[in-house]
């Protein structure tokens, strides 16, 4: 029996190691400028120069890369005169970053209920905090999240309650490309859960991972987003680790200047797990934008197969500071 309370934090981890990110950033800061200078003929600048720390290069781009025909000035995070782009309330996170110098705080509450033969679950999750900070460039975002939970399980007339902090979430979001026609806006999120939670709720070891996010704005009223993940997960019954893949698709609707809605399907698919089974869910909700920098949300979802939790509902808010 799997808790959907984790779909905001504990599900957002993956398999890529932090050393990959360090190597990538190290190349951008140190190695590539020297390589480019070494192979660049005098007076003939190379056509590809996206790791040079100076005006008009990688650090001034809206996205790290661009599709053929682009120049790196299109796409990117929303500006101060546009509504914020949040990672909640749906399972699919935004395929854009918050932007350099911007701080965005996202928070919420989720209730989960599940009935199984001989057992019953009622779980509460709060505050589902996620802090997103744009640093160095519009395409680079640092992320840290913390959550607490209270799970009440009744099994064979015995009641067990698991209260306390969940493991700490850390990550980096890289805004890779803007949308270009049917070519999607794309972002990649290397991330990890660190074993800092309460004894009854912690995984007791680091769980790294990766999340690929991609989306399309169809027109002014309709958008589509998707997420593909690979997560290292610990089997709750045996304590052994396995890889869990997940896939999600969401459709976003603009209902008015301040009101939006979404419908979504997402699934968790364990690979080589001892006891974990595939789970599928459907959910939907509403978003109200009080201002460009303040958003409120509401969501409701259902499990679609026997292994999934029966029902979940939640609400939350997002606030943005320092948008340019």
Please characterize this protein's 3D structure:
With 324 residues, the protein is mainly beta. 7% of the residues lie in helices and 49% in strands. The chain has a 12-stranded antiparallel beta barrel. The radius of gyration is 21 Å and the shape is globular.
Short synopsis of the structure:
The chain is mainly beta. It is built from one helix and 13 strands; from the N terminus they run αβββββββββββββ. Strands 1-2-3-5-6-7-8-9-10-11-12-13 form a twelve-stranded antiparallel β-barrel.
SS content category: mainly beta
Rg over C-alpha atoms, rounded to the nearest angstrom: 21 Å
Largest sheet: 12 strands, antiparallel, barrel
Spatial shape: globular
Please bin the fraction of helical residues: under 10%
Strand sequence of the main sheet, in spatial order? 1-2-3-5-6-7-8-9-10-11-12-13
Query: What's the total number of strands?
Result: 13
Indicate the low-confidence ranges by residue numbers. Answer: 1-55
Order of secondary-structure elements:
HEEEEEEEEEEEEE
Task: Quickly count the helices.
Answer: 1
Distance between the termini: 44 Å
Give the percentage of residues in beta strands. over 45%
Average pLDDT, rounded to a whole number, is 85
Topology overview:
Elements: H1 18-39, E1 103-116, E2 119-134, E3 140-155, E4 158-165, E5 168-177, E6 185-194, E7 207-217, E8 222-234, E9 241-254, E10 259-271, E11 279-291, E12 294-303, E13 311-321
Antiparallel strand pairs: 1-2, 1-13, 2-3, 3-4, 3-5, 5-6, 6-7, 7-8, 8-9, 9-10, 10-11, 11-12, 12-13
